[in-house]
Amino acid sequence: MKIGFIGVGAMAQAIIQGLLKAKLVPAENVLIHSAHQRHYEDYANEYGLTAKDTNLAVTEASDLIVLAVVPSVAKKVLAEIRSGLSDNKVLISIVSGISLERLAELTDYNLPILRSLPNINSEFGQGMTAVVANENLTGEQKDQALSVFEATSEISELAEDLFPAFSAISGSAVAYIDFFIDALSRAGVKYGLSKAAATKIAAQTTFGSADALMKSGQTPAEMIDKVCSPGGDTIAGILAMENAGFLSSVVKGIDATIKKSTGK
Ligand SMILES: NC(=O)C1=CN([C@@H]2O[C@H](COP(=O)(O)OP(=O)(O)OC[C@H]3O[C@@H](n4cnc5c(N)ncnc54)[C@H](OP(=O)(O)O)[C@@H]3O)[C@@H](O)[C@H]2O)C=CC1
Ligand SMILES: O=C(O)[C@@H]1CCC=N1
């Protein structure tokens, strides 16, 4: 199986690194092209990938074609690769905000297409990806397309109208969670910890909390209650955070993310 990437920016690189770690395909079976020759050639050389001269050449030589460009250039790129697509290849889009209907309209209504929304944690096999297939993508071909994300992440098959919410609380939320870790870390610095030590402590605590939450099967509220000793320190902190608008500031951030991705 050959997997082509059109665009090798932050998200494509995370998936490629995840795929290489998972050994889903040999490195030379990953084909790439992007806007800047120096960038895609250097990246291909560094990891033993195959660089191609054009987006169309990637498409023609691949079984799965991952569209990994920013939304504003997707239309132009799809026009370039359209003639290389056929029903024995799968177009996989990771582009935020472009629907299956729009992808088909810009290419061909008979093509198998998978719309996905991964997150950057795919690099370490810890991603979370939403997927939705069109009616032309079924059976073995669908399994093959899903294998890219199974190798790098958990998968959630979602209705398309939930993609903006998913993108906000997963794709974008990696940054929001890191923002929270950085906030904890800066608070640690305020009270004398070094930034490096505070960041490690905050990151491990975040990681361990997410792991424990999932392993316990409890709700976040139940976990919070276990940490808040009666009359203790944590409940004082929770109340002060909420008084400063913690919940509504997080929801406002998600509202803004969804508004930007949908224009609504
Ligand atoms: N970053 C993330 O966490 C996530 C991103 N996404 C989606 O992934 C897509 C890419 O985002 P991201 O990786 O962050 O963006 P980047 O800006 O990091 O990467 C964009 C890539 O597109 C390439 N590119 C630009 N124009 C062309 C062209 N005409 N032909 C071929 N390649 C081109 C660039 O080439 P070059 O490198 O040579 O300049 C670059 O490699 C977006 O649609 C985004 O919505 C989805 C989920 C999460
Ligand atoms: O910021 C963005 O537009 C992309 C979509 C999800 C994560 N990054």
From TrEMBL:
Domain Pyrroline-5-carboxylate reductase dimerisation: start-end pairs: 160-262
NCBIfam families membership: proC
Sites where the protein binds NADPH: 55
Cellular component terms (Gene Ontology): cytoplasm
EC number: 1.5.1.2
Similarity annotation: Belongs to the pyrroline-5-carboxylate reductase family.
Positions with a binding annotation for NADP(+): 6-11, 34, 68-71
GO MF, one annotated term: pyrroline-5-carboxylate reductase activity
Domain Pyrroline-5-carboxylate reductase catalytic N-terminal, residue spans: 2-96
Catalysed reaction equations from the record: L-proline + NAD(+) = (S)-1-pyrroline-5-carboxylate + NADH + 2 H(+); L-proline + NADP(+) = (S)-1-pyrroline-5-carboxylate + NADPH + 2 H(+)
Keywords carried by this UniProt record: Amino-acid biosynthesis, Cytoplasm, NADP, Oxidoreductase, Proline biosynthesis
Subcellular location(s) of the protein: Cytoplasm
Its job: Catalyzes the reduction of 1-pyrroline-5-carboxylate (PCA) to L-proline.
Pfam families named in the record: F420_oxidored (PF03807), P5CR_dimer (PF14748)
InterPro entries: 6-PGluconate_DH-like_C_sf, NAD(P)-bd_dom_sf, P5C_Rdtase_cat_N, P5CR_dimer, Pyrroline-COOH_reductase
Signal peptide: none
Keyword Lipoprotein found: no
Pathway recorded for this protein: Amino-acid biosynthesis; L-proline biosynthesis; L-proline from L-glutamate 5-semialdehyde: step 1/1
GO biological process, one term: L-proline biosynthetic process
Stated name of the protein: Pyrroline-5-carboxylate reductase
EC class of the enzyme, as a word: oxidoreductase
Major subcellular site: cytoplasm
